[in-house]
Amino acid sequence: MAGAINCDVCIIGAGSAGLSAAAGLAQLGLETVLIESGEMGGDCLNTGCVPSKALLSLAKRRHVAAGVHPAEVEPAPREAINAYVSETIAAIAPHDSQERFEGMGVTVIRECARFESPTRVMAGDTAVEAKRFVIATGSSAAIPPIAGLEPGRVLTNETIFSLEETPEHLVVIGGGPIGLEMAQAHRRLGSRVTVLEMRTVLPKDDPELVDVVRRCLKAEGIEILENVEVRSVEHLPGGHRVRLSMEGAEHQVAGSHLLVAAGRKVNVDGLGLEAAGVEYDRKGIRTDRRLRTSRKHIHAIGDVAGGPQFTHVAGYHAGILVRNIAFRIPAKVDYDALPWVTYTDPELAHVGLTLEAARERHGDGVRSFTHAFTGLDRAVAERRREGLLKVVARPDGRILGCSIVGPGAGELIALWGLAISRKLKLKALTDVIFPYPTISEVSRQAAGEWYKPSLFNDRTRRLVSLLQRLPGF
Fold first, then answer.
1. Could you report the per-residue pLDDT of 56-81, keeping only the tens digit for each?
2. Known binding residues for FAD
3. What's the rounded mean pLDDT across residues 258-265?
4. 228 φ/ψ angles, rounded to the nearest 5 degrees
5. 16-36 as b/e, with b when 16 or more CB fall inside 10 Å?
6. pTM of the predicted structure, to 2 decimals
7. What is the pLDDT of residue 214?
8. What cystine linkages occur within this chain (predicted)?
9. Which residues are annotated as part of the binding site for NAD(+)?
10. Which of 52, 87, 384, 452 has its CA 20 to 30 A from that of 441?
11. Could you give the domains of the chain?
12. Which residues are annotated as part of the binding site?
């Protein structure tokens, strides 16, 4: 494609955010151009959510079927693993394909995009002028400045799914969600695994619930070293050696493969944001709550906007964008009921405010309590009693936050997100009829636990005794 195009909206980036925005705007009748230089579907489809969850699913099934101690698991054949992951991506890819979006009326240009001015973008040799622009270029794996580390010789989420062999010993730098998910998946596929974390693993989550995940991963044979300082990396002919400092002493860890999962960086290089007058920093493009940049006709959505980096946030941003552009509704982002999930086994999920954040906003009267899965019949039947559910609420029972660790935590958390977004009290959950026996009953049990002190006490018993003496009913 060459020449010039004039359109209503030009979107740069065909990942989750850009695709969702393009679909919505085009189907509402706006002339939409979508520019993408890489693969349609972006990180989520090709190197992120989809392949990682496929790998986790395969590893879990193998782990359950083996029924042996993790140390006895033989390495899985990589060819079969890669085929499974590839088939999963291929099954979802048509939904994100260029053909599907062109069928919606979107003009798709497969080139790099660069702003020449606030109103003009060059995509290859095609000039695109638009009333509005949307930057949705996402993020990519960040490589920390560690002495001796050569980016091309280590694995990231962008390369680990194309390995030709199952690692003998996978060393992971980074104990966040990506690091722990890949650590457990490869342990269950037969690799020895060591995780190195400069702080504590999953530092954004509740420590009590994180400890459940930590214990489970260690029980499977994963070595987790926390509060370490990685000093240097040496790339060897047959692997890698990591030198680190821990508790004042020097150590080294040698492995066959090295995965770096130490955060993400936003993709802004080469966009020509200076020519567009768009302000940004290393955290991302600066936006207001309507996702407008310093140039009000240019928007930024998804990871590149510098906020929470989740695929579901990208989709949420697209909805905010469509309301602003198509319907001229000044919709704004609101993260009060933002969920996130770490897909280890057990899963760890969170939504809303932590106890500390809730007390800062609502005062010291905010309460928190924890309810265990131990009394949950379905958990007992499946020998999965390690779960916990922690609720943060105001004194009147209004729900402010919830964290869950256990089987299916990512599914369970949605109910609590709905409750927070609708400003419901715990009483609302006690009134719901949950099917028996299910893991979901833990939500009703936890809500009921809140009211036990005020319900089952001497005052209530005296009231009940009085009511029983009243004639008839």
1. 999 999 888 877 565 566 777 899 99
2. 53, 137-139, 303
3. 96
4. -110, 155
5. bbbbbbbbbbbeeebbbbbbb
6. 0.94
7. 98
8. 44-49
9. 174-181, 197, 263
10. 52
11. 3-40+97-140+265-325 (3.50.50.60), 151-262 (3.50.50.60), 339-458 (3.30.390.30)
12. 53, 137-139, 174-181, 197, 263, 303
